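Entry 12.
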Amino acid sequence: MPGRANVPGQGGAPGQESAPGSPWPDSPQAQPYDMSRPGESADQPMAGPVPGRPAPVDEHETRVTGRRTVQYIIDAIIYGIVAAVISWVLDRGTGGLHAFLVLVTVVLDVALYLFYWAWIPYRQNGQTLGMMAMDIRVVSADGGRASFTQLAVRSVLLVLFSPLSLLVGIIVMMFSRYRQRTGDYMARTMVVRGRARLAPEQRTYAGAWPAGYR
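Predicted 3D structure (tokens):
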């Protein structure tokens, strides 16, 4: 209309008025708050422990360092007692007989180790006896059930670094986003609360290694 100056709209182009009640483009109401973490895109799921896949469980469910410490002590005592009994029973004889019994003891110790730290949790929902007591369990890092091979691999460092394995494990876990110790990184596993709910779509990858991973 003649005599009416063109007034810039609120945040719009000159001469263009904003619709009544519409927020300014630069106002907080018009800009969605970015909930993503630094380095993560807001329209992409949070990166999980397996590269290229989203996290199968909330990080809070992996905050069980204290429980894991007590669990390891319980399991170490149980396993140690059984191993000591086997060694005591077979510590007999002299000469060739003694050498043979020593060999049998070694074989039985290895079998016992795999049975206790891998076979039992494989058959018992990812739980050793100590884990049952502390209500935690081992799962595959992709959210599925941990395989026997994964459980065996994650237990290797308990032998290599014993008796420092507990201290080394705690230090590594404290600096890990999903509280994974070195053995968990090797086996692609993680420890969660016993009743943690995993993402259903991740369970189809139970025990599988990431595509292209070598």
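Annotation: The two ends are 73 Å apart (CA to CA). Helices lie at 65-90, 95-123, 129-134, 148-154, 156-160, 165-174, 182-187.
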